[in-house]
Target: Palmitoyltransferase
Amino acid sequence: MAAPALPTTSAVSSGNSGSRSRTRVSGVRRRCQWLIYWVPVLFICSILSWSYYAYVAQLCLLTMTNIGEKVVCLIAYHLFFIMFLWSYWKTIFTLPMNPSKEFHLSYADKELLEREPRSEIHQEVLKRAAKDLPIYTRTMSGAIRYCDRCQLVKPDRCHHCSVCDKCILKMDHHCPWVNNCVGFSNYKFFLLFLAYSLLYCLFIVATDLQYFIKFWTNGLPDTQAKFHIMFLFFAAAMFSVSLSSLFGYHCWLVSKNKSTLEAFRAPVFRHGTDKNGFSLGFSKNLRQVFGDEKKYWLLPIFTSLGDGCSFPTCLVNQDLEQASTPAGHCAANKNENNPHFPAKPLRDSQSHLLTDTQSWTETNANIEKNKLGMSNPALTMENET
Ligand SMILES: [Zn+2]
Ligand SMILES: [Zn+2]
Model:
């Protein structure tokens, strides 16, 4: 057999320099991307810094004449400001959690998947890998949820974020305003960030209103402070409107124990799609995010329940196999609260449940929702089929 021709020295060196320049270009591109991703955060920080100067220096110190009003406004303002900054900081810098090592495929399984083109064999390997994992959700076609990029079996409510290029536990969405994925590790912080930023804006609107009216009735001295007072009111009112709708939406999601992704595309369980599959009732849903101890609810300190890999579901109590899992004991008996829950038997064997056969029914509404989820450009997760 003829030996393969060795590349000449010049070919090797030009190949090396080519790959070096490609690496340099991709390095520059990555750095540019990194800078661009921080632009929305810098924008919020600039607005926040200016609002601090406008409110504290121009409104409170230079315009307010009543000492009592000045002191009360400054104390209350700083309280909202600190809580806003604290929750914002925690949302930005809390690293999203990734699936633990039990969900990763073994080296041998990875090799097998790479070698084997047949999808039936892939499913066999994945079924075997998922056998002892607390996984109850499936893809739309009933297969085990698997991430090609991270080479792992996806835990329930976990999705691959195309911006972070990682699988994120209980992924809600990738938020450009915090340059981070909002998921299991920082969802409480994100909610508090929305709540405190809304309170901050509403407080500014309420205390700036009388000076804003004076601006239009020529009741303010003719200094630059009056322009700060006017723009401060406009900016705070504008942000209040957008924040209140976003905060209201997330309050609804928490009350239903849904993530933004699940609101667009209902999770598929072993027996079918169930948009309320993770809902345990209002009080328990609240505790899933905020924890059991009420004294920590308003502080950006991590108190969410669970490990992010498995979640109590309304299915669990009816399924003897699942009731023995760590998630099982948390499950509430929720049948009376959920009349739409599929009345399908829930004690079929695991092997039957993992088949590709579509053994469930989907309502037209769910199908419509799924289409919506897949076509929504705001969602950065992968599409599962
Ligand atoms: Zn992934
Ligand atoms: Zn992300």
The pocket of zinc ion (ligand 2) is lined by residues 161, 163-164, 174, 181 (CB under 6 Å).
